[in-house]
Design a protein that fits this description.
With about 280 residues, the chain is an alpha+beta fold. Helix content is about 25%, strand content about 20%. The chain has two domains: about 130 residues, MutM-like, N-terminal (N-terminal domain of MutM-like DNA repair proteins); about 130 residues, Orthogonal Bundle (Helicase, Ruva Protein, domain 3).
Amino acid sequence: MPELPEVEITRRHLDDAMAGHSLDVVRTTHARTARYNRGPGELDERLQGRAVVGIGRKGKFLAGVLDDGQTLVAHLGMSGRFTVGDPLEPEPAHTHFRTLLDNGREVRFVDPRTFGFVAVFDDEELEGSGLSRLGPDAWLEALSPTALHSALSTRKAPIKALLLDQVVVAGLGNIYADEALHIAGIHPMRRGADLTVEEIERLLTAIRSVLDTAIDNGGTSLDDLAYLLPDGRAGENLDRLVVYGRAELPCLECGAPIERVVIRARSSHFCPHCQALRP
């Protein structure tokens, strides 16, 4: 699933393409893509003719401000991606949403597994959506070590699972949670309540570092190329990963084999030496 860096790179491309332009033609062709509105017809009608003020982001959600005060919301799900190009270009398979802009460019949403969505919300609908329940953005907002320590003080769940809980912090997924925990020297099975303020400070510094690096490198495209930039290029961060996807390979810090475990139904990669599990 695309995580914060991949969504941020997508946001930048969409903002460059859409800000200041109107959605002259809108066509949604899959009911699941429009499931947070009353079907494709309502989504198309509410978006048709609207101008985009700008495209923002919260966690893994894209949030575009429209000229009538509504919000265009999108989530890439497991396999979704946006493209920006000429409307005469061949349409990729699984294109479920497309909008022709007033400058002749076309924005398309391609989503083979249909876990992603596109929606338009007014203020009341937005308040009732998943965006209102998100915790602080892992990259945009300054996270306080003491505040996070307090929030985790009663949490017995493993820290890896807590980092994936978008209510605790928004934007992290498997890849960058594993990378940040490795840099911070914290075992993914450590209970959230057992982390010290100093460890949480290291973790927050590591989170910022891995997100900065990934964004600078255009995000992480895995071998399945489920994530591509809107211009069709692959992200170049894969070679910068130090633990994720490297099970049984030597740790780049100490040489110990990287281990993979399943925590709360999600895979986790870590170095048993650099991230020793304390009693």
